Known about the structure:
Elements: E1 19-23, H1 26-29, H2 42-49, H3 61-74, E2 79-83, H4 86-89, H5 101-116, E3 120-126, H6 132-138, H7 146-164, E4 170-175, H8 177-188, H9 197-224, E5 227-233, E6 236-239, H10 244-267, H11 272-277, H12 286-292, E7 299-302, E8 306-313, H13 321-324, E9 329-332, E10 334-335, E11 338-339, E12 342-343, E13 350-351, H14 353-368, E14 375-379, H15 392-396, H16 399-417, E15 422-428, E16 447-450, E17 456-459, H17 462-473
Parallel strand pairs: 1-2, 1-15, 2-3, 3-4, 4-5, 5-7, 6-8, 7-14, 14-15
Antiparallel strand pairs: 8-9, 10-11, 12-13, 16-17
Amino acid sequence: MPPLCENPDLKGVLPPDFVQGYASASYQIEGGHDTDGRLPSVWDITLRAQGLETGDEAVDSYHLWREDVRLLKEYGCNAYRFSVSWSRVRPLGGKDDPVNEKGIGYYNNLIDALLEANITPYITLFHWDLPQPLQDRYKGFRAANKAAIIEDFVSYAELLFERFGDRVKNWITLNEPFVYVILDAVVLNSECDFDNDPFTVAHNQILVHAHTVDLYRRKFQPTQGGRIGITLNIDWVVPIDESQEAKDAADLAVAMALGWVGGERVKGELSSILKKRYPQLPDFTPDEWKIVKGSSDFFGLNHYGTKWATGKIVERGQVSGFQFFGAGVEQVAEKDGVPIGRRGHNGHPYTVPWGFRQLLNHVHKQYAGPNGLGIIITENGFAIQDEADRTLEQIVDDKERQEYYDLYITELCQAHKEGIKMEGYLGWSLLDNLEWNQGYAPRFGVTHVDRANGFKRTPKDSTKVLKAIWQHTIKSDK
């Protein structure tokens, strides 16, 4: 029994309608890369060109979706977050390009099966797998003519609202736009202009999101009655000591992750911290601000770990692309030789539950609370170091992951109890899957997948722990 379940103060602390389940993404799980009319996304092309593991087969959810739904039901989930492959439903990507009805049919079948199992679908419109033809036509989200990507994306979103909106009531426009900025610069774009391209990609993503929300609210929400938002990612950053340099650096890193693509939508203004650091940060026109501000019905939040800011600002070339895009803030996971928490695979993440709680407080105070938005954790999970090298018996007995979930959900429950409106929690991830350019070595899934033996799925013990946690913390409506 996990420690949380032995805490009487947290019994029934969450409301009966609390959302709980798992998350996934199309390119990471589906496979079927050239099946039934699907054409390549930017990831198909890039990973092959770089000689890396690809999502050609992934974990074959294109064919094994019924098994995925069965597992979700077995795990006691009431929600499942998945993304639609733009390249599967409109393979050429553009607003005037044909619809692939076989791709539409795949998602119709999945949605209907989820609803039959009393599992609410949460659909992400874009989880990074841009159709390659749009990259070829106008450089995708780096488009100099922002109208091109806006029109094509909004048309794609409208297709999904029309075909699925009678049954799907929870929509996420973009997954982690800040991380996509980084991936576009350091993985997908071999000729990145680091002084300009990342700002164009971020700016265009925010506009795509805002125009999509505007369309949904005007044309679909009045009759379909759904909700729409976006999912942001942040690994929390705290000063390593009491120096002003460390405090300022931590504030800058947080502003980069949340203020860049979050503050605009909620507060209707650019981050003053970022404008000082990056004078080239593009602003919006008055008409654009009208649809950017307030363009979310909930606050979607992805979070994994926490690190310390030393106070040192480093330049590009001295650190990884990810750290450089953290505003150049040097971040470390050890202080006086002591790690900040249990180390996950290659240091992503570290188990730091107190950092999660600080992040929830910050999001509530700065963004969600003043605007009456509930917070949904749309990703949170742990990859055990070198889990891929363990025996199946050891993989199933995933104590480090169980510990992570127990500690983090305890903080979520305490936050809700103290007045922060927590609406849901979707763990990452349902399955061991492709972790983009990192391949299949990082294992975040609560389900082991044997890719060498028909993609056989085996539940890990963390599924039992999470099921017990929700039975203890969610108040029964009976």
